[in-house]
Amino acid sequence: QVQLQESGPRLVKPSETLSLTCTVSGGSISSYYWSWIRQPPGKGLEWIGYIYYSGSTTYNPSLKGRVTISVDTSKNQFSLKLSSVTAADTAVYFCARGSQVFNYWGQGTLVTVSS
Amino acid sequence: DIVMTQSPDSLAVSLGERATINCKSSQSVLYSSNNKNFLAWYQEKPGQPPKLLIYWASTRESGVPDRFSGSGSGTDFTLTISSLQAEDVAVYYCQQYYSSPLTFGGGTKVEIK
What we know:
- The complex is a heterodimer of chains A (115) and B (113).
- With 115 residues, chain A is mostly beta strands.
- Chain A contains no helices and 11 strands.
- Helices cover 0% and strands 50% of the residues of chain A.
- In chain A, the strands form 2 sheets. In chain A, strands 2, 4, 5, 6, 9, 10 and 11 form a 7-stranded mixed sheet that branches. In chain A, strands 1-3-8-7 form a 4-stranded antiparallel sheet, with no helix packed on it.
- With 113 residues, chain B is mainly beta.
């Protein structure tokens, strides 16, 4: 059974860079697409972007070039960096498998942007 | 971007009764070359990640009870829970994957009456 687990700092200061890693277990990261999705407290879901195991990426333009997603196949991990964060970036961040529909999800991690 | 609009925002249904959730897309998500609707439904319970219920508008994900069904085409879609169970209390989201950026509806909260 494929499992995903997010890890990274839970508190980030405004204007700094949010960094999260998703570790995939129970299966290989190869031959699949992997996504990041976020959910502000009490609100709906926003797709951030996805990466193919080969490294090709597609991002949500709404994040205005602040997003970088990378993959490390040797560690079975993929990562998210979101720069120049503000309070509006406070959210539960999920990693998930897929580029169209998402059939495996991490539990999510709440990242708070605050000084 | 394709805007997904769900209705109602919330609904309360008696146990064993039918629950119906609507989702409307701002443009068609039907791909004419394969006649498939690029529309999925998810269930989110408190403290849990969303769970994929239905894709291609009407195909149930493996393991999803058959009381969940999806219908519709083009811009108008429906998720139906034929006989509401206590464990179905959740927020339900539709999502289009016809074009990037992928977008979700605002969610519909289902409660027991």
